[in-house]
Amino acid sequence: LSATVADAAQDPVRVRASDGITFRGDGWRANLGGSFMMDFGDQVSGPGTSDDFVWRRVRPNLTLDLSPQWSARLEYEMGDIAPGFRNAWVQWRPKDRFSVRVGSQFAPFGLENTMSARDMPWIERSSVNALTPAALIGASFRTRGDRWTLSGGVYGNDIADDDRRRYAGSSLIGRGTWVPVREDGWLWHVG
């Protein structure tokens, strides 16, 4: 999410298949977007013969850039697998390379957990991903340099998962990355 201030000369409304509908005003921007993913399975013979479509993800979202320092996001999962809020946070960026975020957000725990399904090289996430934290309620910070990133925070349970948990808990989660080699067309990423 970039917290850029809209240029007054730009169109007040823009519609793009890749970005959704963007509304711009004097110093603010609102984007209404979303994503969806559908699976199809077909079994031609044997017991339980069926073919079925499953809406794995249906996620409408609203992103607000209120100023260069303040932004917010609201994203709700409406799919068949695990409905509920995924992102519902407010972010403050006092400096260009530092931000503080409060609300329901994806914990900084591994690259696979923080990357969008549309950017993954494989069709499914690994089975290890089922053991990692996902969207949790908490407060976090993010900072970066030219070749490193650092993020972490204090988190409670998932906002959409409270009815399934037997015990409330808190977690302290952090992640650091480093790019020791970055050359034309490739890089080495550690962390």
Shape: globular
Span between termini: 22 Å
Order of helices and strands: EEEEEEEHEEEE
Tally of separate helices: 1
Low-confidence stretches: 1-8
Average pLDDT figure: 81
In percent, how helical is the residue content? under 10%
Radius of gyration: 19 Å
Relative strand content: over 45%
Order of strands side by side in the largest beta sheet? 1-2-3-4-5-6-7-8-9-10-11
How many runs of DSSP E, i.e. beta strands? 11
Structural class: mainly beta
Main sheet: strands, sense, barrel? 11 strands, antiparallel
Description:
This protein has 191 residues and is mainly β. The chain has 1 helix and 11 strands; from the N terminus they run βββββββαββββ. The protein has one helix at residues 111-114; strands at residues 13-16, 20-25, 28-43, 50-65, 70-77, 84-95, 98-106, 135-144, 148-155, 171-183, 186-190. The protein has an 11-stranded antiparallel sheet with strand order 1-2-3-4-5-6-7-8-9-10-11, with no helix packed on it. The longest helix is centred in the middle third of the chain and has 4 residues, at 111-114. The two termini are 22 Å apart. The model is unreliable at 1-8 (pLDDT under 50).
Write the layout of secondary structure elements.
Blueprint: E1 13-16, E2 20-25, E3 28-43, E4 50-65, E5 70-77, E6 84-95, E7 98-106, H1 111-114, E8 135-144, E9 148-155, E10 171-183, E11 186-190
